Amino acid sequence: MLEIKLHGRGGQGVVMASQILARAFLLIELYPQCFSLFGGERRGAPVTSFLRVDEKKILLKCEIKRADQIIFLAPDLIDEKEIDIILKPKGLILVNTPLTVDQFSHLRKFHLSLVDASSIAEQVGLGRTINTAILGAYCRANSGLPMACLEEAIGETVPAKVEANLEAARQAYEVTRVFPAGE
Questions:
Q1: For position 2, what pLDDT does the model report?
Q2: DSSP per residue over the chain, as a string?
Q3: Phi, psi (5° rounding) for residue 74?
Q4: Distances, alpha carbon 172 to alpha carbons 8, 61, 139, 175, in Å
Q5: How many Å apart are CA 72 and CA 126, to the nearest integer?
Q6: How far apart are CA 1 and CA 58, in angstroms?
Q7: From the CB of residue 159, how many other CB atoms can be counted at a distance below 10 Å?
Q8: pLDDT along the chain (183 residues), means of 10
Q9: What is the pTM of this model?
Q10: Distances, alpha carbon 143 to alpha carbons 8, 85, 86, 95, 166, in Å
Q11: What is the DSSP string of 77-120?
């Protein structure tokens, strides 16, 4: 079973990102399960979404404590002291950031991928909603999910600005920087 956590802030599209990703995994005939946690505040408040994917139906109904992969839509939510607790060894971390890999030396024991999804989303007219851009980066970082499946899931799931969302995902896929664990 693959367990993924998405951390972001209200308005970035974290919940929709997990739903799009669940649909994309369903297209490759895997069973997804997703749910989210967020407080009463909306814009700017921390949001966590959980996604499990497996070859068989998932019966487990609890939060993911230690994920295989973590996606940070808001890099300020990375807690350096907690990362070893919430991510399995050699796990994947995808971060929305314009910073260089040198700024993340403390995460280099994990598979690390970086993309400036915020700039891409802004450039294509999506504003703060970066979910499809970060998911395009996820396809680049995680070769197990074909970009064509993500594009189909976006087309089926996103309620507005479908072409802009597809463009954001494609651009992010092309520019994502991938660093294997320990390199």
A1: 96
A2: -EEEEEEEETTS-HHHHHHHHHHHHHHTT-EEEEEEEE-S--TTSEEEEEEEEESS-----S--SSEEEEEESSGGG--TTTHHHHEEEEEEEEEE-SS-GGGGGGGTTSEEEEE-HHHHHHHTT-TT--HHHHHHHHHHH-TTS-HHHHHHHHHHH--S-HHHHHHHHHHHHHH-EEE-TT-
A3: -120, 105
A4: 17, 32, 9, 5
A5: 18
A6: 9
A7: 7
A8: 94 94 96 84 81 94 93 93 92 97 92 98 96 98 92 96 98 97 79
A9: 0.94
A10: 23, 25, 22, 17, 18
A11: G--TTTHHHHEEEEEEEEEE-SS-GGGGGGGTTSEEEEE-HHHH
The pLDDT of residue 62 is: 86
